[in-house]
Amino acid sequence: MKQKRKYLVALMLCMQFLTSGPLVTADEVKEEVSPRLKKQQELLVKEPPKNNRDVLEVSTNENSSSYQARPIKDTWDFIEQIGEDARQIGQEENLYASVMIAQAILESGNGQSQLSQPPYFNLFGIKGEEVSFTTIEDNGKGQIYPSLASFRQYENYEESLQDYAHLLKTGLINDKNFYKGAWKTEAENYQTATKFLTGRYATDIHYNEKLDEIISTYHLINYDENTEERANENDDYIFPVPNAYITSQFGKHDSDFHRGIDLAVAEGTPIKAAKSGKVIQSDYHPSWGNYIAIKHADGLTTLYAHCSRNLVKVGQRVQQGQTIALVGTTGNSTGPHVHFEVNRSESLVQEQLMDPLEVLKIKE
Ligand SMILES: [Zn+2]
Questions:
Q1: CA-only gyration radius of the chain, Å
Q2: How far apart are CA 192 and CA 70, in angstroms?
Q3: How far is the CA of 247 from the centre of ligand 1 (A)?
Q4: Is residue 249 situated within a structural domain?
Q5: What pLDDT is attached to residue 40?
Q6: Angle CA(180)–CA(183)–CA(185) in degrees, nearest 5?
Q7: Residue 328 predicted with pLDDT over 90
Q8: Same structural domain, 56 and 158
Q9: Number of domains in the chain
Q10: Greatest extent of the chain over all pairs of C-alpha atoms, in Å
């Protein structure tokens, strides 16, 4: 059966995406692959990855390389775009959403590659016949040659994620369990899954190191959690101290950015957990003074700073309203108050901060 297909040819001058896509896709096995296309695919899979420049820094010495992800805003934005779809598909298909997102970041260069952008939306470099790209490739010795490869095209990112999940669950026509080792039922954690995919989904022998680094830098395991469980927990956030004056609002103040809100109350007033959760930090910081960070089941993290005393330890589970610390003026502070932050990420980066008053439902 021969289908009529529409080919789009684009000249790609960057090598961002053309790297570590799946070695074989189910469709390629189903269909007779022309010798010409086969040759191109061989060329394709032989290429060493070159798409990590913007995503990962590589430090190399004589014997080994290590990869370091520097959190950047582009990546956070990209995670926000695909995160919830990945979470849902991960739950439905029993796959690690964290791995899926990290692969998308790596394969698409934070969604910057041409293939991953509209109108293609191909995040994973999955091959098909909808779009043909001529790419300029480097054979690793500085020699450059053109190569033609065909890729699938999608309506949106969700479809791309779904197709990727389908590929992982259905494997190859002659081996439907080809990717089984990456399923949640088989891999006890994301590291096991990324290790399994190395050499199988991608030829890059450092594939898992790169994915693991991205997952930990951006705390992508948040996306492996089930949102259904969260939906059942419908208690709202509460103010950490009662009857406080808000002496400073969240956001820009002239040239400064205030990461949270300041709640002025008497020294020694008990500070309550705004919602139940797990203490992930209880420490001293030069500007926060004694502070506590709590991660909640909905994925948000709250932070309470300038405490005179911290009363809970890292790893401890706390209930909403439980006293976790006492108000003080430690660190960079001019008087007793609680500096209260809410963050979408437990890494506490500025880009992921939210206005606490929105979370407290004071503001729309
Ligand atoms: Zn403050």
A1: 24
A2: 23
A3: 9
A4: yes
A5: 40
A6: 105
A7: yes
A8: yes
A9: 2
A10: 78
